Protein 1
Amino acid sequence: MARFSLLSRIGSRSSAASPAPGSPPVLRRAPSPGALRRERRAILKAREERIRDLGGLTLEMYRRSSFRDQLLIEQCREIVALEDRLRELDSMLVSVANARRAPTACECGAPVPWGSHFCANCGRPVGAQAVVACEGCGHPLPADASFCANCGRSVEPRDETEPKHEEPPPDDTMFHAADQQER
């Protein structure tokens, strides 16, 4: 029974999925946090098994007074590679957790629900990048955009500070009174 290392199986899977040179890279979605946690648990279990096997191997080599350094080094490298992957998974899980967190309160002190782009109390933009919608097509835009990336419409900032005064229609009551006196 041949024993394959876990990392060689992972490596062969990723090399088979790599695109041919010269072709555009294949963009895949990031794995879900659940998949990352499952992979982390499997690697932890494999790491513990490898450490236990390394201890047993070292003990047997001691009993027989015949150490094979290359075999020990190979086993240690596998454990170190598993630990590197564990650190990578941990950093990915931390970044996913940080990305899902939103500010819990605005600068004005009002609570901000997850996924909100503006404070419901004061209207300030919250989150990493404030988003508004295009008036033409409804496509989400960054707050500082000048044009819509979807339809190309110019995004004109509304000037809410200056109220628009409409001129009242000309008062023609004077003309009506003058007209009646001539009759």
Protein 2
Amino acid sequence: MRVMVFAKIPANAPAMEPTPEMLEMFAAMDRYQEELAAAGVFVAAAGLKPEADSKRIVDEGTERTVYDGPFAEAREVVAGFSIWEVKDMDEAVAWAMKAPNFGSGAVEIRPFFEAADLAGFVSPEELATPREGERGKLGVA
């Protein structure tokens, strides 16, 4: 089972500065990612720049509007993500509980759709044929 793990922080979290505490948090996260990789769970991960560097595209009927970040209504923002390959949601939760605790924020774990989940949307032939190339590397999309 493949899951995406979102690391969320409060929208009003202070800007990242290379303080000794922040450097230790980065080192702790690096050790954790190495543990995930050694266990064969790690697929991919990345940190994300602050919301101020973001764009949001909102569909409103047939129109689309682009908004610049930061977004005033946000209470929490995604600071990073990981993709893990685990046997089930219990294993994903167990790994998430081993992550360094930085004192605020949250972790959200969401499973990817598996091919069988899409049976009502695609033909049996499409389900039986794995995607090729770049699209086939990370999921069924």
